[in-house]
């Protein structure tokens, strides 16, 4: 990646597309692409964001978006989503289901190798965690985190590598929110969504999410990388973001605060 190729990147003097690992990414030219405009370090402690569910959201400027994809990884659709993101030098966040991560560790590792953030979305995707007994819900959350980290990094510790969580079906209860808060795990809702759980053509999908985005002007957008209609419309969606002056913000967890020596 030449410095000239990075001029399209706003805010940061870092060309994120250039730092992708792997031969394919290394050969990538991000000139004229949408790109990732900046990286936002998000402190997960006490975090509850997404105005569909919480009073507050991330500190995004007008026309800034955070792209999130739930429920993967899944062969077929997830690789198509990754290809579309890579082609526009864009980084996203995947909230993965533990059993899918365990079944597709190579896909999960590819997401990480290509610079995306991988957060958690429970082990079995109960609909919803708020509607099953608390102990079972906590166990499903913890199993999911362990399965994700084992598949991604080969081992799981007490603290998830990426302490980001999204509730399946946004089914949170006050008790589970308290639990995650005590674990230092940030909770992500969304500011708008594609409604891609409803079957529609890629063209209809594209029109719907663009209309919602133009209305909102910014925000955390929820897609599903398990949906073919989403994978198919994503290239056109990203091209349109560029044409309309939207900028993609990549979220990563802030490093844990270390205790100062006495
Ligand atoms: Zn889900």
Topology pattern, helix = H, strand = E: HEEEHEHHEHEHEEHEHE
Count of DSSP H/I helices: 8
Helix content: 25-40%
Q: Could you say how many structural domains there are in total? A: 1
Unique bound compounds: zinc ion
Proportion of beta-strand residues: 15-25%
Q: What is the class in the CATH system?
A: Alpha Beta
Query: What is the CATH-assigned architecture?
Result: Alpha-Beta Barrel
In the predicted model, the low-confidence regions spanning at least 5 consecutive residues are 1-26
Shape: globular
CATH topology: TIM Barrel
Averaging pLDDT over every residue, what do you get? 90
CATH superfamily: Glycoside hydrolase/deacetylase
**Main sheet: strands, sense, barrel:** 7 strands, parallel
Signal peptide: 1-27
Pfam family, one: Polysacc_deac_1
Domain NodB homology: 63-249
Function: Is involved in generating a small heat-stable compound (Nod), an acylated oligomer of N-acetylglucosamine, that stimulates mitosis in various plant protoplasts.
Please explain how this structure is put together:
Keywords: Hydrolase, Metal-binding, Signal. The chain has eight helices and ten strands. The chain has 262 residues and is an alpha/beta fold. The longest helix has 20 residues, at 134-153. The protein has helices spanning 23-26, 77-87, 98-103, 105-113, 134-153, 174-182, 202-216, 228-243; strands at 36-42, 48-49, 64-70, 93-96, 117-120, 164-165, 186-188, 192-193, 219-224, 247-253. 34% of the residues lie in helices and 17% in strands. It has one domain: Glycoside hydrolase/deacetylase (TIM Barrel), CATH 3.20.20. The site of zinc ion has 5 residues, from loops.
């Amino acid at each position: 990646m030449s410095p000239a190729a990075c001029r399209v990147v706003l805010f940061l003097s870092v060309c994120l597309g250039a730092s992708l690992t792997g031969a394919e990414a290394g050969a990538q030219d991000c000139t004229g692409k949408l790109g990732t405009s900046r990286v936002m370090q998000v402190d997960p402690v006490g975090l509850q964001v997404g105005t569909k569910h919480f009073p507050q959201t991330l500190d995004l400027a007008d026309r800034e978006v955070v792209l999130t994809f739930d429920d993967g990884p899944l062969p077929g659709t997830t690789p198509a989503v990754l290809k579309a993101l890579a082609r526009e030098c864009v980084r996203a966040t995947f909230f993965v289901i533990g059993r899918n991560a365990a079944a597709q560790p190579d896909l999960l590792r590819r997401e990480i190798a290509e610079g995306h953030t991988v957060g958690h979305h429970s082990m079995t995707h109960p609909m919803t965690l708020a509607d099953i007994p608390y102990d079972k819900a906590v166990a499903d959350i913890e199993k999911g985190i362990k399965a994700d980290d084992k598949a991604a990094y080969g081992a799981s510790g007490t603290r998830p590598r990426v302490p980001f969580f999204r509730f399946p079906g946004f089914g949170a209860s006050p008790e589970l929110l308290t639990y995650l808060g005590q674990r230092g795990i940030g909770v992500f809702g969304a500011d708008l969504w594609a409604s891609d759980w409803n079957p529609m053509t890629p063209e209809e999908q594209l029109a719907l999410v663009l209309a919602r985005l133009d209305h909102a002007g910014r925000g955390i957008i929820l897609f599903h990388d398990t949906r073919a209609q989403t994978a198919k419309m994503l290239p056109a969606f990203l091209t349109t973001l560029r044409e309309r002056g939207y900028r993609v913000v990549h979220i990563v967890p802030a490093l844990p605060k270390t205790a100062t020596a006495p």
